[in-house]
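Quick illustration for those who missed Monday's session on complexes.
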Amino acid sequence: MSQQQWIYLNGEFVTKENAKISVYDHGFLYGDGIFEGIRIYNGNIFKCKEHLDRLYDSAKSISLEIPLTYDEMQEALVETIRRNGLRDGYIRLVVSRGPGNLGLDPRRCERANVVIIVEQLALYPEEAYKNGLVIVSVSTRRNLPDALNPKIKSLNYLNNVLAKIQSNLVGAGEALMLNSQGYVVECTGDNIFIIKNGVIYTPPTYLGALEGITRNTIIEIARKEGYTVKEEPFSLHDVYVADEVFLTGTAAECIAVREVDSRIIGEGKAGPITTHLLEEFRKIVEIDGVKVNYD
Ligand code: PMP
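Prediction with 4'-deoxy-4'-aminopyridoxal-5'-phosphate bound:
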């Protein structure tokens, strides 16, 4: 990455110090907006299409007009990465409703703000992928899908922030959230999988989980590798007695969990299927996506 970090702000490249938007932006006032977190691996924007599809679907769902076409947005991503000379890292793409007045009516917001930030990233050290994370379930319930559909990757993360505060209090790495019926849904920034007797389970998204792109990638890889993957509801009990548990997310990739609510999972370290899936996942991250030309 070049010395100077350039941030894309509505078609211009500005320094971090100058990357400012109005305090009247409804993203700030009301969490009214959407975002994506995307990875770049050795110059490859991993699953670029899937992320942009989710962004444009989220925008349509909340009646937010993105002031760039799909192709222009992809070009803006590529150009931001190129300007920063970034080969491996994380991209945060935010589209907020834009500045309006203090009322929440989005009709007062004339133009959405588009921000692209690219940074280097190492969420977890490599040992964490072998040793696994310690997580806890929390009392904060995941947003009800009929109140705020989890398919919309909105800027409204207060629900997840509250869960994170709870896991921080006990020093755990992640907070596992249930829905109002007590079914396991997801963590604050990751989807969850459990493995029992060789079968892989993950909660269906209608329970309230985001349809994670890493989640879908892992399901695809697992099926290709001959595993049975079932999207079906399960409870905390099923997590406690699982042979393996792992989380998936753009930043976390596919990371094992060794302990949930003080119950040791399996051997207390990354299990063989989780390790295999991570290996297969890492084989495609530099291939599947859009390549950046740095010339
Ligand atoms: N759930 C939530 C709540 C998230 O914020 C994320 C991260 N975007 C995920 C799951 C994982 O999704 P993805 O694999 O698309 O990063």
